[in-house]
Amino acid sequence: MNLFGRKVIYTDVEHVTRGNVVDILQKALPIHQMNRADIEYLYRYYKGDQPILGRVKDVRPEINNKIVVNRANEIVSFKVGYLLGEPVQYVSRGNDESVADGVSKLNDYALSEDKAAKDKELADWFHICGTSYRMILPDRMADVEEDESPFEIFTLDPRNTFVVYSSGLGHRPILGVTYVQKEDNTVVFCCYSEDTYFEVTETWDVKAEPQILGIPIIEYPSNEARLGAFEIVLPLLDAINNVQSNRMDGVEQFVQALMLFHNVDISSEDYKNLRAEGAIKFKDIDATLKADVGYLTAELNQTQTQTLTDDMYDTVLTICGMPNRNGGSSTSDTGSAVIMRDGWSSAEARAKDSEQMFKRSEKQFLKIAIKICNNLRALSLKMSALEIRFTRRNYENISEKASVLVAMLNNGKIAPQLAFTHCGMFSDPQLAYKISAEYAEKQEEKQEEKQEEKQEEKQEEKEQSTGKSLKRNGETTSKKTENGAEGTAEKTQEVST
Fold first, then answer.
1. Are 81 and 106 in contact (CB under 8 A)?
2. Are 245 and 65 in contact (CB under 8 A)?
3. Domain for residue 157, yes or no?
4. pLDDT per residue as tens digits for the range 316-328
5. CB neighbours (10 Å) of residue 480?
6. Is there a single domain that holds both residue 199 and residue 99?
7. pLDDT at 63 over 70
8. Does residue 225 sit in the same domain as residue 308?
9. Domain contains 330
10. Do residues 148 and 225 share a domain?
11. How far apart, in Å, are the Cα atoms of 34 and each of 44, 162, 176, 262?
């Protein structure tokens, strides 16, 4: 099956109405059905249903191993884990505390709605088949006191969903469509334009009602061609399956080698009995001819086969922008040299590309989410006030970043906020700075309290020592007075005598 990405559906219509929505659907559905067939094939391939399972052998058909080395699943798992290993965060652009509080509230709503898991579902789909779809709707049943999210997020199946774009400048989305099959096996198309919701049946009956959210179905393509992560290397993946299956066939054929009877007359029944008993017994058919019995084997060179498999797999890693996690043979390289050598820099570059595509669609999602929050929860957020941030495992030495942070903080000409932003240690520098500033303030307060306590202790000790000194001086004076009085009495007594 030849796959070259998913086709984008365009229309010349600039505004969808009740009168033209059916015509747009009828023109879009054939293209969607072609995309649907491709998506179904790629999804089955990802799960392990690959062409090798249908292999047929004409020679010795009883030995026909069908080994699925599911590298497609491995590629998708790595791509998703590397891109979204940490949840997507929204951070405020400026230092406005009210904006920061609003963004923090938005993150709380996303957490309440389990958005991180739903982001992974999206990433799974667009790495498998090159595109994915999300829907956001207001949740009017959300409990305000429990701080539940005012919106609901749904990950839509790309086999049942598509977006129609304008053929004009900018290719803006015109119509978002998802369809469901009801219990009576009838299909209903749920269509959203900028200002209207249309419900279209199989018989092309249309119901319309106004809505103010815009188009709540957002497409998240992996790239402009809408190619899946492993789609471009499908021939190599099939070849790896074939080689591994043939290797296993070779092993079994060696164990179950054909017996060669040379100048020996033997029936099929005798051959079966001999094989079952593990013994050979025969008689020459001609005394002048030499009779011989042996095994007919075709030994497969396992070393060359393994080299071929490794070479194809390395090619897959290179094309898909994945690192060689086995590493190289050299152990002398360290740091960034290892990153460059083993392909982690290529993985980061590909993740950056996916990140930009994800952000573009995420902005459309946020516009609707903010509109819902502003209407239902009285938040006053704007798209320009926040930034979408991805956090990925970083293979650089964390101690180097810490040193950079310390050096910038010790530089009196650099604002601490800039140090936190540019050191590269934190996924949300603003939040990290806020927490650190609060912690530093508390530590300073504790230090001041300790200093005050020490001063009070010193003052008390001083007062106590002063009091003891005065007491000792008073006792001394009293003793001198008493001694003086005794002396005077004695002298008076002597004079009177």
1. no
2. yes
3. yes
4. 999 999 988 665 5
5. 10
6. yes
7. yes
8. no
9. no
10. yes
11. 16, 12, 18, 58
